[in-house]
Amino acid sequence: MTVANWPVAELHVHIEGTLETELLVVLARRNDVALPSYDPDALRELYRFTDLQSFLDIYYANLAVLRTEADFYDLGMAYLTRASAAGVRRAEIFFDPQTHLANGIPLDVVFGGLTRALADARATLGISADLILCFLRHLGGAAALQTLDAAVPFLDQFIGVGLDSAEVGFPPSLFTEVFARAKALGLHRVAHAGEEGGPDYVHEALDLLGVERVDHGIRAIEDPGLVEILRERQVPLTVCPLSNVCLRATPTLAEHALPAMLAAGLLVTINSDDPAYFGGYIDDNLSALQREFGLDNQQLATLARNSFRASFLPEAEKRRHIADVDEHLEGLLRLTSGA
Ligand code: ADE
Ligand code: ZN
């Protein structure tokens, strides 16, 4: 059975991580940027990661091919088209402006291309999407503040801020000032925590940054007190199972924390993170979980409902999407009962 048609929200996807090797080659040729190979399959063969940093090294290097507004548009449209086919009705999409600024690309080029892709995808595919600006933790708190200041003229083009890149050694406590400023600007706040870093990073993200969602958060399961806080407050955790396997945050999918997280009553959502690098989009992640853990339709419906509950959509829109999930579930149950 396919899970491709569940209506879902994707809340943890880096637009830069959706750069498929086919588009990478097109953009490298378009902009005269050197690659180790111009064969998309050979490039994909290089994607053998041992941890988060081994992935980030290749991911950042590849981003040198993004030069013009048209490049960012093509990247955004390619993801939204693929996501829409996977059942995504709402996407809250991370982007890393500091990487592009370091490559000499001004913010208006990045925003211009991505915002136009989001508008066109809404018009042609009916998918709702917004941007979340991420700070690179390895560049520190002062650089994050500078980036937020530079992004203020574009405040109408993103809905929140996030925190990504190398986790261990760059705790949330380094970013309290920039997150306070983001809050004062009326922006949503999320942060990667508990991917490679321990439960203490999740505590800091909640207590010092005031995040509304935790990205990954899988290592929270090691701390029963933290699990109780997350359950009680129903803090959403945007889990990315295929990413966790590829970056060895979990030894195998069979050993993934997801079943324990669900059993603990946590508000878990399923996401693709960097689908061009980790072997699949949101539907591939759901299919892998279904194969590994034998998830039934009720459990898949819970994950789909959670994704809309955890989104930053207005309540009325959340309810409309959740009604679509319920309708999809009823259709499947009718099919399997032969009615
Ligand atoms: N940037 C892109 N993908 C990431 C991940 N999984 N963790 C931290 N930073 C990232
Ligand atoms: Zn991520």
Automatic annotation (TrEMBL):
A GO molecular function held by the record: zinc ion binding
Residues that hold Zn(2+) according to the record: 12, 14, 192, 273
Alphabetized UniProt keyword annotations: Hydrolase, Metal-binding, Nucleotide metabolism, Zinc
Site-annotated residues for Important for catalytic activity: 216
Names of the cofactor(s): Zn(2+)
EC number(s) from the headed UniProt entry: 3.5.4.2
UniProt cross-references to SUPFAM superfamilies, sorted A to Z: Metallo-dependent hydrolases (SSF51556)
Residues in coiled coil: none
Source species of the chain: Cryobacterium adonitolivorans
Name used for this protein in its record: Adenine deaminase
NCBIfam families: aden_deam, PRK09358.1-6
One GO cellular component term: cytosol
Residues in Adenosine deaminase domain copies: 7-327
